[in-house]
């Protein structure tokens, strides 16, 4: 039985149905890692091999592989190792296509579905909201879906069952709670001084 793939190259196969052959799964993992390295080079970061952001992607992909094979204990052990070594929280239940770029993984959380060639800045994260724990739009219950080519700047956060369109850019420290159209740019409210603050005593 072959995998069902959505438009972002994410595997939609769930449950204990007959999994594909081990060689096919391992080949998909290697293809995704090659796409990760290629994205690092395109962004001008050079070789990714010794970078912790690439290690975070490798450990996630191994944990996801174990998760899909039904080796749940191994999957969550790899998740713990990833958090300890890189500081990134990427659960094996997340679905991330090839081309993941996390130059500074410490403090990043990626829980949901992510398309191809997505970049996460320092402390950029996606995850769920407690008020919508059950709504599933494709990333998991209460979790977001990011399209292809999305850029999450430093500190940007996407929360809840939210869809971010292809090639969208989420500005630094922006908090996204609603859907974002493809190729749009979302910036946070500009900083402004508060009256009466900072005056000399």
UniProtKB/TrEMBL annotation:
Gene3D superfamilies: Hexapeptide repeat proteins (2.160.10.10). Residues 1-23 are annotated as: Disordered. InterPro entries: Trimer_LpxA-like_sf. This is Serine acetyltransferase. It comes from Methylobacterium longum.
């Amino acid at each position: 039985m072959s995998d069902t793939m959505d438009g972002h190259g994410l595997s939609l196969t769930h449950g204990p149905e007959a999994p594909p052959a081990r060689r096919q799964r391992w080949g998909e993992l290697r293809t995704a890692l090659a796409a990760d390295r290629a994205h690092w080079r395109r962004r001008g970061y050079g070789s990714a091999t010794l970078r912790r952001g690439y290690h975070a992607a490798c450990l996630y992909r191994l944990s996801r592989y174990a998760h899909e094979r039904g080796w749940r204990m191994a999957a969550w052990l790899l998740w713990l190792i990833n958090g300890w070594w890189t500081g990134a929280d990427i659960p094996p239940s997340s679905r991330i296509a090839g081309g993941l770029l996390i130059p500074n993984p410490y403090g990043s959380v990626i829980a949901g579905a992510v398309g191809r060639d997505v970049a996460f800045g320092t402390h950029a994260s996606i995850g769920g909201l407690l008020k919508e724990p059950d709504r599933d739009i494709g990333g998991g219950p209460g979790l977001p879906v990011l399209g292809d080519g999305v850029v999450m700047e430093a500190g940007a956060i996407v929360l809840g069952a939210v869809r971010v369109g292809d090639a969208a850019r989420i500005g630094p420290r922006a908090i996204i709670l609603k859907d974002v159209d493809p190729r749009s740019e979302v910036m946070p409210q500009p900083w402004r001084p508060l009256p009466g603050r900072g005056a000399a005593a």
